[in-house]
Amino acid sequence: MYLRNSAILAFSVVLLCLSAPTVFHQPGQASETAKMTYEDSIKDFLKDRLYTKEQLDEWLRPKEDSFSQYDPLVGYQMHNRQLKEGIDGSNVTYHYDENGARQMINYADKPCRINTYGSSFTDCEQVNDGESWQERLAAHIGEPVRNYGVGGQTVYQSYLRMQREHKVTPTDYIIVNVTPPYERQMYGWQAFFYTKSAKHPCPPMPCVRVNSKTGKFEERPNPCPTAESLYNCCDFDWVYDTFKDDFTLHIRLAEDNIKKGRPELSYEPMMKMAADRGMQAKIETPEKLREVANALFIQESVYATVRILEKIDKFAKANGIGVLYILTYASTVIEETLKSGKRFDQDVIDFLDKKGLPYVDILDALIQDFGDYSISFDEYQKMHYVGHVSPMGNFFVAYKIKDKMIELMDPKPAPYR
Fold first, then answer.
1. Digit-coded pLDDT (tens) for 66-81
2. Cβ within 8 Å of residue 257, ≥6 positions away
3. Which of 231, 280, 285, 295 is most solvent-facing, going by the fewest CB within 10 Å?
């Protein structure tokens, strides 16, 4: 089973911290919870996530500054912006090229042999263009490192992206950054979990549907493959027909029903979802509903991650590409691992070890480094994190990566020839 005892502790914050949408009752529908059905709660949940035409008009309008821009393959990619979110409260500047890669600084005029893919820990949010681990690594090895990171995405979107970008910017080597929360690759619509804004409406995305008990692994393309098709998300009937069976919708709905005082609506559906995936549970309280939903979500997302890593390995071998996997984490995950002595994603480590794939585990590296200090973990993590990884933390990541990366490269980078 793809489940670890520390999983619930490590990631319960994901669901606990989500904001609940305003209760919406259809015209003529009784407001009393007792008169609602589970189907009513699905509709209630989806209605709150509908876009207005004006919201989409604003996101799609060409502009100088925005968190993201529409992408037909993976839902969105990053956009030029400046935000006050850096070290010491400084402004951080982000620039991207025509293919959505973050601006290369060091040795940008030289041929690039390394593309990197992943989430915000690859995009290197909260540090400036030249402060990313890619730029630190590039400065050291004397050649450029391209950054295709996208905040809020994970390994499945990375897998799709690398197939496309390899045709445009082919390289000999790829760095795949695997970063929790792994459940993001199962979102059919990012708005199930995050708050919409004009700079980022949390659009529909390609996703996977899995069942760790039966071995099911199904790839689902972006349900809005054109900018015009995004306007379908203003139509309740289309949204309902498209997403009513989405696994992540029902996980999120459990927490939503708890917050709205109607948890019993999710008891039976959640027990059935869990049983279908090999997890037997009797749910009679909101606390148990939350526990089972969290555990089930993590179980399936870790299983999905392993299956996607298998696909990346197959793609790389078919195209003669060397791959280095790096595992990065929020500081909260590292702190919880220190407390529990266990990691929620041991199955990912086991897979990489079993396949003999080269990887760098930043969680383990930070824990070992922390052991050399006589300070609290809170004091320690402030050296490396400012929410995401700080400029100093990016130095740390780059120099933990460099040896494994250089081992893969042939010919070696100039400083190591």
1. 999 999 999 999 999 9
2. 41, 263, 265, 266
3. 280
Q: What is the pLDDT of residues 223-269, one digit of tens each?
A: 999 999 999 999 999 999 999 999 999 999 999 999 999 999 999 99
For the cut 50, the answer to whether the pLDDT of residue 6 exceeds it is no
* b/e code 235-252 from CB counts within 10 Å (16+ = b): eeeebeebbeebbbbbbb
Nearest-angstrom CA–CA distance, 113 and 169: 9
185 by Cβ neighbours in 10 Å (0-12 / 13-18 / 19+) ranks as buried
Q: Measure the CA–CA gap between 2 and 18, rounded to whole angstroms.
A: 24
> Residues 261-277: pLDDT tens digits?
999 999 999 999 999 99
Q: Residue 63: CB partners within 8 Å, gap ≥ 6? A: none
SS3 120: helix
CB 395 within 8 A of CB 369: no
How far from chain centre, in Å, is Cα 225? 20
End-to-end CA distance of the chain: 45
CA dist 382 and 192 (Å) reads: 31
What's the pLDDT score for residue 34? 64
> How many residues in total does the chain contain?
417
Q: What is this structure's pTM?
A: 0.90
Q: For residue 296, what are the contacts with CB-CB under 8 A and spacing of at least 6?
A: 251, 270, 273, 274, 277, 279
Alpha-carbon distance of 242 to 179, in angstroms, equals 28
**CA dihedral (333, 338, 341, 346) positive or negative:** positive
Banded model confidence at residue 3, pLDDT cuts 50, 70, 90: very low
| pLDDT exceeds cutoff 70 at 174 | yes
Structural domains of the chain, ranges and CATH numbers in brackets = 7-416 (3.40.50.1110)
> Can you give the pLDDT at residue 35?
86
Two structure tokens written together for 223: 């349900």
My answer on whether omega of the bond before 411 falls inside 30° of 0, hence cis, is: yes
Chain centroid offset of residue 297 CA: 14
Q: Which of 231, 273, 258, 315 is nearest to 58 (CA)?
A: 231
Amino acid present at 137: L
